[in-house]
Structure prediction request, 333 residues.
Amino acid sequence: MIPPIYSPAADRYDNGMKYRRCGRSGILLPEISLGLWHNFGDVNPLANSLAMAHHAFDHGITHFDLANNYGPSYGSAEETFGQIMKKSFAPYRDELFISSKAGYDMWPGPYGNWGSRKYLMSSLDQSLRRMNLEYVDLFYTHRYDPETPLEETLQALVDIVRQGKALYIGISRYPKEAAQFAYRYLEERDVHCLLYQGKYNLLNREPEEEGILRQAQENGTGFIAFSPLAQGLLTNRYLNGIPADSRMAQGGSLKENVLTPALLGKLKALDKLAGQRGQTLAEMALAWVLKDEMVTSVIIGASSVEQLEDNLKAIGNTQFSEEELKAIEEILD
Ligand SMILES: NC(=O)c1ccc[n+]([C@@H]2O[C@H](COP(=O)([O-])OP(=O)(O)OC[C@H]3O[C@@H](n4cnc5c(N)ncnc54)[C@H](OP(=O)(O)O)[C@@H]3O)[C@@H](O)[C@H]2O)c1
Prediction:
């Protein structure tokens, strides 16, 4: 049977999505972006991955975030995205903002990890092949490498832009000092750092506390928050036990021992507060990150279209009263 040809929703830019300018740049990103870390690997049904990608694009999500090793298995989320490009998205390439990264363990031996020029350059070539792309919109160094001279990593990024394999570049999880060095080094070579990607959510305030958010803003760089739902903790997923199909039950990146009775009590109180705002806990958690104008976008993960639908509603109300903010802090104290 010939699969039906995908035709995106005609109203995809008129049904609620808002776009924010990414630092000092020409790029606008949707307030909600979709990450493919989980649920897009070769262990996951392609039909569900396709349905989520379609739903996202149909609702104005133009930004899809990947990395070389997303899966499992390593590389398979990019392969899945390559299939989505082929089956559905190829005619809409110019409407999409696609990112990938290299920095974590990818292939055996000394050249498949961290921040060398050798690794970044070969990894991006592999990513492009897997995703059926000629270029990525954004390429990140996925983490700071304390052993490799930062100049080497950053010069590789500059050269990747000059080669036309990435239009923009970004840094992810860099300590503040290294980020400052990167912003300056790149600016001096006329390759502006478009985005800083960092973990930021109600339970993890590091970018705010360490001044990473402010520093990005001062350097004209956008900030994009990953794991804004704390991998699912800040949703209704674990309020009544650990569902068999949840990320926590899989025992990978989200361990059961983080869900202490104390944390569960806080999550339940936050859920109640969200209800008073007319939101689900997930919607309120996303709204809380988006209330800050220094945040360009949140990169969510999802395992179903229903979760995506829920998360998209967060955009409707990202305002918080002083009393609500105080109540949140008291709960999390
Ligand atoms: N730069 C980095 O080092 C780095 C690190 C981590 C992530 N990231 C990026 O950030 C993206 C998002 O990370 P993340 O997946 O941890 O994000 P997240 O949004 O914090 O968590 C996503 C998980 O929360 C659950 N969920 C989402 N919406 C829900 C809803 N409405 N109701 C109930 N449960 C819901 C789902 O869990 P179940 O699967 O259990 O249903 C989903 O897989 C990644 O895909 C990646 O692109 C980057």
Remarks:
- The chain has a mean pLDDT of 97.
- The chain has one domain: 19-238+281-320.
- The beta strands are 19-21, 28-30, 32-35, 63-65, 97-102, 136-141, 166-172, 193-199, 222-226, 297-300.
